[in-house]
Design a protein that fits this description.
Layout (H helix, E strand, L loop, with lengths): L4 H14 L3 H12 L4 H8 L5 H41 L17 H15 L3 E2 L5 E3 H4 L10 H4 L4 E2 L8 E3 L5 H9 L4 E10 L11 E11 L4 H16 L4 E9 L2 E10 L5 E10 L1 H6 L8 E8 L1 H8 L12 H4 L3
Helix pairs in contact: 1-4, 2-4
The protein binds 3,4-dihydroxyphenylalanine (DAH).
């Protein structure tokens, strides 16, 4: 018998140990366990051994074969793990790729106008105030010197909410009720602006929407006069619209101010744009807010935000602002 099983086993063990891949192991299996291997050849020769040696040689041969087979299998699972890890890594999808150049959205043009207005007024020393969109008729009307049956109530196309006593709860028709809430919650001096959503029973067309946005201004201090109002509107005009724009006040009537005015903006091309209403806060309104008209005086103003956005971006139809068509909105 020429085969040295011990030497063979040692040699194979070393090769298994240093095998680097499944295909190395396949090669080892073929060479040492396959049909043409030394082990198979040795097995065939058992018959030619002396009878007393056959049994133990056959036994050893089987044990060696089993150990080689087991060692190859063990190495195989060890290598498979590594190979699977490598395969996974190479096939891994880089999901970050799809967000490496993300499309970032931007605020709606009404929000842009709203925030710019806040910035301008905050820059002039105003604070931002807010109030509820669902109001009582007292805050929306009575406190603003519009008692029940006052004709001004009809002018507002009010949307009533089915809550409490009949007609006692409304969707606010303007931001003016924030004047009252602010006066009730804060001692003068008061310098606030209150942007917000307002609601009216209007059919949507190019210049009307049932939901739109206003910004209200209120100043209460000692010795405030109409000149302070005109100066504030003028300062706002140049700072929001830019140099070359100016403003004017025209007499008008509002129940909550006395005297009242309409204010217009003159554009550099000379054209006038009607923007909003303003005036000296009516003594009844001060009283409703808990402020003594003998000690304090003030002015208020209010105007639409949406029209400013339309004007700024050259949009002709108010409805475009609210259809939320991305093809339209993404232009601005
Ligand atoms: N609230 C008025 C409206 O919605 C606008 C307005 C006019 C507000 C005069 C004021 C003001 O504060 O003084 O039509």
């Amino acid at each position: 018998m020429t085969i040295d099983l011990k030497e063979l086993e040692e040699k194979v063990s070393n090769e298994i140990k240093t095998a680097k891949s499944s295909s190395d192991l396949d090669e080892i299996r073929k060479t040492y366990l396959g049909k043409a291997s030394e082990l198979v050849a040795a097995k065939k020769q058992i018959g030619s051994l002396p009878a007393e040696e056959r049994k133990s040689f056959g036994q050893t041969l089987n044990e060696v074969k089993n150990r080689i087979s087991a060692a190859t299998d063990a190495k195989q699972s060890e290598l498979s793990l590594g190979e699977r890890a490598i395969q996974l890594e190479s096939e891994r999808m880089d999901l970050t790729e799809s967000i490496s150049n993300p499309k970032v959205g931007h605020t709606h043009i009404v929000t842009q106008a709203w925030e710019e207005l806040e910035d301008v007024f905050v820059g002039m020393g105003f604070r931002v105030a807010e109030g509820p969109e669902v109001e009582t008729d007292w805050y929306n009307f009575d406190a603003l010197n519009i008692p029940p049956s006052h004709p001004a109530r009809d002018g507002f196309d009010t949307i009533y909410v089915n809550y409490g006593e009949k007609d006692s709860t409304v969707l606010r028709t303007h931001t003016s009720p924030v004047q009252i809430r602010t006066m009730q919650n804060q001692e003068p001096p008061i310098y606030i602006v209150a942007p917000g959503r307002v609601f009216r029973r209007d059919t949507a067309d190019a210049t009307h929407m049932p939901v739109f946005h206003q910004i209200e201004g209120l100043v209460i201090d000692k010795g405030i006069s109409m000149a302070d109002l005109a100066g504030t509107i003028e300062a706002f005009t140049t700072s929001y619209f830019g140099e070359g724009f100016s403003s004017r006040l025209r007499p008008n009537h509002f129940p909550f101010t006395e005297p009242s005015a309409e204010f217009d903006i003159q554009m550099p091309d000379g054209k006038w744009l009607e923007l909003g209403g303003c005036g000296m806060v009516h003594p009844n309104v001060l009283k409703a807010g808990g402020i003594d008209p003998q000690k304090w005086s003030g002015f208020a103003f209010g105007f639409g935000i949406d029209r400013l956005a339309l004007m700024k971006f050259g949009i002709s139809d108010l409805r475009e602002l609210f259809t939320n068509d991305m093809r339209f909105l993404s232009q601005f």
